[in-house]
Amino acid sequence: MCGIVGYIGDQNTSEILVNGLKRLEYRGYDSAGLALINGKLDIIKGKGKVASLEKKLKKQSIEGWLGIAHTRWATHGEPNDINSHPHLSQSGKIAVVHNGIIENYNSLKKQLASKGRTFQSETDTEVLTQLIEEIHENGNAPDFEGALQLALKQVVGTYGIAVINLDEPGRIYVARKGSPLLLGIGENEMFIASDASPIVEHTKKVVYLEDGEMAVVTKNDYQVKTIDDVDLTKEIHELALSLDAIEKAGYPHFMLKEIFEQPRSVADCLRGRIRTDSHTIQLGGLVDVMDRLVEARRIVIAACGTSWHSGLVGEYMFEELAKLPVEVEYASEFRYRDPLIGEDDVLLVISQSGETADTLAALREAKKKGALVLGICNVVGSTIARETDAGVYTHAGPEIGVASTKAFTAQVVVLAMIAIALGQRRGVLEDEYAGRLIDELNRLPDKIDKILEQSEVIKKMAKLFTYAPNFLYLGRSYNFPVALEGALKLKEISYIHAEGYPAAEMKHGPIALIDEMMPVVVIAATDHTNDKMISNIEEVKARKGRIVSVTNDENHEVKELSEFFISIPSTEDCFSPLLTVIPLQLLSYYIAVNRGCNVDQPRNLAKSVTVE
Ligand code: F6R
To answer: Which residues is 475 bridged to in the sheet?
Structure first.
């Protein structure tokens, strides 16, 4: 989704801004632009990639001592040159970049038009830009900063903004409500960004803005305050992110790198948390809330997309291992239906980015109703991580590919650890079984490695299915969520229509789709449902569907029934998703590459969905 970079200092500003925008490309966007001040205010922007912005800059070199830049993911108005950010006020003196949505932009626009303001674009951002100028020019505020504060108070919706004003050529103003922003503190220079990736190569010192806060940033200083003008002293955080982690390390795509990183990311997620000698699990982030969690009436899990799929795996785990009732909700549905949740309940939100707007809103809704709110997040210091009562980081490292891969497996590992710890504390998990599970968790990185060794086989198989128009994915029990995840991965990066189903549901509708053109990916790797899966495979074959199976090494029956199979090492049923998902990620990846798709930045998708 949209990204913001800002810079003030002695380095080449346009270069820093363009490189920063490149670091933000992974978020998904359709246009890019920047504005610089150097005696005058220059803007270059347009539809397309950062590379085309760079080309324009080469032709029409502009320089400045401060600037703001943006990648836009269209919400109001189609992606085109005019709707791209930055937006200029009518006088041409104020430029704004904005992430988020101004919900009352229509009524504000009418009011501004009645005062003689004209608009170039269809965007809500231009309305905000004009509103700031209108308040400033009409003397309704003591100074420009006051005008900005008054404008922000009139706005309904969400924003992360950076504003520059030709009349104040040494300052960048930023403000945040619902859309992340941070400041990077350098030596005689300051950076601004919507996430840490453009900042990390310049400085590790950052200040996170909270909702309702703004900052006035100069070359050597910054002042954070509320939009009600109350000065704040903010903590300076040290970024743990490294530059290597956000580069491709020789892989053609971030997605492939991240798939292959999973033995390490799973090990990182487990590190220091499991004790194989005492067969116990230590989750530091949950220590203070463990009693309340143990006593909980039920757990509600809220998330979106792939994180919702990991939540579904969590449901099976919590119910089996901790004997706790669980409901898994789409965060967007949960928040809008006045959910019945209270002090006896726990809301567990799962989010890779920690910034997903609907998940954040679900968290706030449950908190208002008195529930204990826990989080599983990947991005350290993200809004969700900061707003939950307690939680566990996945430590998967930065995930740059838009399609989530290593974040999913790390989320499932965290859910497994919580479920086991909870089962032990609630006295419902047999010691012998708990011990077996904890030992097996330690073996998972090697087992994932073994699956990755088969990547060439999966690559060859992908060739045969590259032009299939549809795919069906079937799974049961722990592997039903994996069927959903496999289908989601394929559709988002290859644009092939794919559906995931619990295998038994096939007979209730989807079976009508099966013919000799339909690849059916069957995930048959959980022991207690094996016989039933074999029956489902027979039903598909009887209708000439093409069976691709993901099954255990020793499951000869499923292998014999399959046109193609991918063999995975055996594991405990509840950990099966951590292995079965790997070949499905690779299958989607190779199919998408064969189809010439932009794997890391699929069309219309954004890495962190910060609008509702
Ligand atoms: C799919 C994908 C999305 C995200 C979803 C939630 O590959 O990446 O479906 O899982 O947008 O994002 P987070 O986990 O950041 O809340």
So the answer is: 502, 523
Let me know if 2 is a catalytic residue: yes
State the pLDDT confidence band at 77, using cuts at 50, 70 and 90.
confident
Is 574 assigned a catalytic role? no
Return the SS3 of 327: strand
Task: Give the 3-state secondary structure of residue 372.
Answer: strand
- Gap from CA of 583 to ligand 1 centroid (Å): 19
**One of 2, 269, 574, 597 is an active-site residue; which one?**
2
* Residue with CA nearest ligand 1 atom 7: 403
Quick check: do 250-450 and 454-606 share a fold?
A: yes
3-244 fold: Glutamine Phosphoribosylpyrophosphate, subunit 1, domain 1 (3.60.20)
Fold classified for 454-606: Rossmann fold (3.40.50)
Q: Encode pLDDT of 258-312 as tens digits.
A: 999 999 999 999 999 999 999 999 999 999 999 999 999 999 999 999 999 999 9
pLDDT digits (tens, 9 = 90+) for 95-139: 999 999 899 999 999 999 999 999 999 999 999 999 999 999 998
CA 305 vs CA 8, 50, 370, 592, 607: distances in Å: 37, 27, 26, 19, 11
Cα(28) to centroid(ligand 1), Å = 12
Q: 486 in ligand 1 pocket by Cβ < 6 Å?
A: no
Per-domain boundaries in the chain: 3-244, 250-450, 454-606
What are the two backbone dihedrals, phi and then psi, of residue 553, each rounded to the nearest 5 degrees?
-45, -45
May I ask the CATH class of domain 250-450? alpha beta
Ligand 1 centre from 202 Cα, in Å? 28
